[in-house]
Amino acid sequence: MLVLLNLGCSPPGSPSQTTPSSTTTTTTPPSIPPVRVLMLTATAGFRHDSIPAARAAVASIAARSSDIVVTATENLADVSAARLASTEVLMFALTTGELAFDETQKRAIVDFVNGGGGFIGFHSATDTLYDWPDYGRIVGAYFKEHPWVQPATVAVEDRGHPTTSGLGAAFSLTEEFYTFRINPRGAVHVLLTLDPASVGAQGDFPLAWTQSIGRGRSYYNALGHFPDTWNDARFQLQIAAAIRWVAGRL
Ligand SMILES: [Zn+2]
């Protein structure tokens, strides 16, 4: 919605005014509303011990960011068309299993993203809703297995994307590293990949990506198994940038 502010300009069609006192205004910039994030951590399968750390990390990001407001919920009923109408970003963080959305909710989620809403998935967001192909398209892939739970190196494949700013060419951490049923490369824009040599493997293992869905943006990051990941400043940089990016603010 475009809000027209009266900044003392001449009304349309009026001749030039010679009332300088009326043109003096304060220079407060127009306020940009914050990005409203609905963060869902509901589970219908495995439940990660890192969920409290995830919620704390995202709350912390919001607390120090004047442009981000987060509501975390475990209540599926909060994911409704009415709620999404006042939401810029829908985040599935550590969700699992066949979450019991009804058809109306599923339609609302698809319409939200197609209509320009932002979607973010973290870690087991790809271990979620296997029976709903539209969701798989939004998140980008489905979890296959986690062959490696160990320290490893993550290569930053696209160092120019806002969500990888400050990460450098690669970083190392201890994580549960996922593989996916179908390698999403080609359907998505890959940001991070596992350095296969760092786990003694060969192959192509994307770990984070973006894509456009209709008029909306989607971001997924497979990291987040351990609380330490959520507490890691490098991960929090990615979370904050992802929120702004999928909201179209970056
Ligand atoms: Zn995990």
Tags for this model:
binds zinc ion; 250 residues; alpha/beta; single chain; 22% helix; 9 strands; 9-stranded mixed beta sheet
**Radius of gyration, taken over Cα atoms and rounded to an integer in Å:** 21 Å
Question: In whole angstroms, how far apart are the ends?
Answer: 19 Å
Spell out the helices and strands N to C: EHEHEHEHEEEEEHH
What is the average of the pLDDT values?
Answer: 92
Report on the architecture of this protein.
Helix content is 22%, strand content 27%. It has 6 helices and 9 strands. It is an alpha/beta fold and 250 residues long. The two termini are 19 Å apart. Mean pLDDT is 92; it is low at 1-21. Helix 3 links the parallel strand 3 (89-93) and strand 4. Zinc ion binds at residues 48, 123-124, 176, 225.
Give the gist of this structure.
The chain has 6 helices and 9 strands. The protein has helices at 51-63, 81-84, 103-114, 133-139, 227-231, 233-246; strands at residues 35-40, 68-73, 89-93, 118-122, 143-156, 170-180, 189-194, 206-213, 216-221.
